[in-house]
Amino acid sequence: PSGRLANESPTSYALAIRFGLLEPEEVARAGERLAAKVGEGRFRISTGFAGTPHVLDALVETGHDDEAFQLLMQTEAPSFLYPVMHGATTIWERWDAVRPDGTLHPSSMTSLNHYALGAVTDWMHRTIGGITAVEPGYRRFRFAPRIGGGVTSARVRHDTVFGAIEGSWTVSGDDVSLELSVPQGAFAIVIAPGHPDGLAIEVGPGAHRWAYVRPRIQIPLFDLDSLLGEVVEFPEAWDAVAGVLVRHLPHLAQLLERPTASGTEADRSLRWALGMIPGTSAEVAEDVAAALRALSEANA
Questions:
Q1: Which of 279, 234, 281, 240 is nearest to 261 (CA)?
Q2: Rounded CA separation 208/26 (Å)
Q3: pLDDT per residue over 221-266, tens digit each?
Q4: pLDDT at 193
Q5: What angle do CA 214, 219, 224 make, to 5 degrees?
Q6: Cα-flanking dihedrals φ and ψ of residue 161, to 5°?
Q7: Which member of 1, 23, 38, 176 has the lowest number of beta carbons within 10 Å of its beta carbon?
Q8: What is the pTM of this model?
Q9: CB under 8 Å, gap of 24 or more: what pairs does 84-89 form?
Q10: Cis bond before residue 100 (omega within 30° of 0)
């Protein structure tokens, strides 16, 4: 009845969502729990062979794009980008096969060319690149890239029996530009991310381009009595809070990577949350409030 699974792990929720094991009214709750578990893991990978290919899709399908991008962009092991940051050009058997000091992990399981954990590139192709087939052979396909994670541009190419599909996008501030090349004999359903009019059209063969200004998301006026769940929904607001705390309490740096507040914690005030952190003084609370006011004024 609570909408929770008996085994609460990211893999359990990801598979339940992706394989359609839940009733429609249970999916949203499962997505919230999945996002919460990923946040509790500080956006490091905690899935294995079964869950890794599905966790990012499950987050996006349930409306948690921000958490998906944070999981993708994490650079500390275990993460998708830790191997890349340490020179990997292939998929490793272990996320930390090469340790931070450049030495190999002492385990025997340290292949530096291993298939199983490479599923993230498929998600990047479909979600960041935005290309998915609607009909066999890509006779009709969808071009619906998602923007997030600090990524400012992407380019994708897919060879089909009709020819090459090529898509790209760039974002600079609020300005967005999309380009798409559709081969002869194919058709594309284009969904423009953040378009002010919700652009969703079908186009035929040829070169197409769209440029527009996406609406700026207005950050509410937060203060110490704002609900924690509302503050963490806005990365800029949480970064302002965390920045102050780390300045006063440097040892909290890793613990303050943006959390996912859920359940009763989401309904508690920011003032309550600060009171739960040892060493947080009235001065720290005042600085947090000032940082939130400055953020709102800058965003006005």
A1: 234
A2: 39
A3: 888 898 888 888 787 888 888 888 888 888 776 666 656 555 566 6
A4: 95
A5: 170
A6: -65, -20
A7: 1
A8: 0.81
A9: 88/112
A10: no
